[in-house]
């Protein structure tokens, strides 16, 4: 055999050997479980199970908003196998969750600098520290000293805004509940040609009902498509067949995102709940500290409830029980466009989760969860831990307002930096923690489908028949239970609008 022949033979043998090695791997790749797509809820369930399996070899996780994939951080290729076997993406990173949590504890002890915030970011596998525009000079030097010895475990960023709580003072011209009124649109009702104050952009309690889209309690269903007890409303399911679900009408009472007033403060209602069967609502703890009582109008002529528990700082939630034990407020959030989103459950936040926020100052905003277990130092000793960090905007008056994802309650607006023109960071109190601490449950009145404001409101088409007399104007919604079409619909003219002085062009001057 000559040298050339020997070289060819050797090369062939090497190629065959290489193929023998590569072939099993190629076959194995075709057998890998396909990547799954997840909702935030299903991702949380699997991630919780994987965290238990991984133990201290896990390093956090997040939901990829674009692909819907669950991404689990692990410390070795061996650990990655169990993750990919379940249909998730495994990413090998440097820092363990144990190390990251230890780093946040160090910061709490050494970086007590007003105007700072931090959270664990699983996407970068680091603790992200944010310093607002007030952190300069000695304050910046103290922060640099605290973070300097932590190496690449920490990243420091600057914010153009200033961290502050989002409770606001009073409401301007015309009274009422916010930009154009709080509870609906009315229809040439209320006091004045196009309404004033209280409950509605074009009237408090208009020709076609009380506080719904076509007046307070609406043409076509309880709290559904067009309000509560108007021409064809009543109680074919209390909250109306129009319900308080997606695309439902404006609510007949305060719901998530509605303005609430206490003393000189204005905040937003978070979520209606029940405590031992009694109706109540959640809002921010710093709002609960502002006043012991809360009303639906600045003048206090429409009282809502009394604070039973308020926790701030360290955490940030308050429980307010309705003064009327027979109140049946809906378990819903105001979408600020005449419709509502019903809320049926509470859910933990996940990094990458798409969320929306409803507040009485800026209305509806959306964005993404960017961090968990966040700490914010608002100054004056007001340091709050365990918050949800987001890129959702908010402004003063939005405090306590609802952050939600579909039918799930997720957070209560606490504070942040920036505004809805410039953007910025906003932090939220986890609803699940507030519920656990107060013993409250999502929903108000325990009404279900057959009660106005039940936790699960009707989701069908608008009601097409009266059920009991509709009542007059701003009066109580009809409570009859007859089948549709068995009673007269009621005129729904009733008393004049509630709240605010007479005026020509509606209420509140915010926005």
UniProtKB/TrEMBL annotation:
Keyword Nucleotide-binding part of the UniProt annotation: no
Keyword Transcription: no
Region described as Disordered: 222-241, 462-511
Segment forming the signal sequence: 1-28
Keyword set, alphabetical order: Disulfide bond, Hydrolase, Protease, Serine protease, Signal, Zymogen
Top-rank lineage group of the source organism: Bacteria
Entries under CDD domains matching the protein: alphaLP-like
Bias-annotated ranges (Low complexity): 479-490
Record domain Peptidase S1A alpha-lytic prodomain: where: 95-149
Compositionally biased region (Gly residues): 462-478, 491-511
Family: Belongs to the peptidase S1 family.
Name of the featured protein: S1 family peptidase
Organismal lineage: Bacteria, Bacillati, Actinomycetota, Actinomycetes, Kitasatosporales
